[in-house]
Amino acid sequence: MQQSPRAGRAGDVLAVVSQSGPTVSFFDAASDQQVGSVEILAEPHELCFDPTQRLLWCTTSYHAGYYHANSGRRTELTVIDPDTRRIVEVVDLAPEHGPHGLALDEARGLLYVSVEGSADRPGGVVVVDTRTRRPIGRIDTDAPGPHWFAIDPAGRIGYATNKEAPFVSVVDLGRGILTAKVEVPGSEGLAVAADGTAFVASPYNSTYADTEQPPPGIRVIDGRTASVIDTLPTDNVIMPVHLTSTGKLLAGEVRTTPDPESRLGRQAPGQLTVFDAATRKQLGQLDVGLFPLTITSSPDGRLAYVSNVVSSTVDVVDLETMQRLACLDIPKLAEPGAHGLAYIPRPA
């Protein structure tokens, strides 16, 4: 008899950012009921849970707006206790600004935070000690706006995707240096497999582009040769990419039609597209909310969570049956809404 996808999840929690809330809301992973929320600084974006310190990190990127249209860059990371749902500390990275992407090396106690460039330095990645919660280094990525960042499970290699630069930055985490630039025509979300292979959404969202863009898809980058070895085609431009513990590659496709009154266009339901990361074959597709922006999954790889920033919802999907189990409504004051996600297992 097939086990229920909810089995064994009592006490687990899903954390969800509302960018305009501005809040982080917590939902019981077994019942989908909201169990609390925390008000935080304006414009929270991404989340990362550190199970060793049992803390939740949240980036606040801008004072208002988003990457291509904002009123100025923020400099803070908010550290949250997910059990008491209280703010532990606000870490100021100034003069670094525009923090967005988060990647955790749990074994070494290091958190990598992508930051945007300025007149006197390129964009890069700030290295934070998760025990002291203080910056201890910086790695230049030689691009103005590294937005998403991911590392291989061994903590050896990191990839930064760049909306405005025609390459993906590859960094050696041990030496703290940029080692390669992989030619990619602008890029969005990414995920990295155990062997160092990176799966990168490209090109960047054509809604923002002034010129014709190449066909959308997932560029597969070989970490050993720092080169694109394959492309997984998709019907629409992709924003988030996520790799589950069971080897399924999840991509969030954005569907839009032109709208003269909105730079984001007129939104149609987005699409979750699932591939087998090993064979690179498509396994299935499912309609989700408007403008899927972040994807995560449960530790066992059974459930996917897709946050949709325009509809401000989170779709909960059973990846074995490709059925939607629930749709969570995330409070917002205005657009944009639901953004960053983190799955938090219950305390041992």
UniProtKB/TrEMBL annotation:
<protein>
    <submittedName>
        <fullName>YncE family protein</fullName>
    </submittedName>
</protein>
<dbReference type="InterPro" id="IPR011045">
    <property type="entry name" value="N2O_reductase_N"/>
</dbReference>
<dbReference type="InterPro" id="IPR015943">
    <property type="entry name" value="WD40/YVTN_repeat-like_dom_sf"/>
</dbReference>
<dbReference type="InterPro" id="IPR051200">
    <property type="entry name" value="Host-pathogen_enzymatic-act"/>
</dbReference>
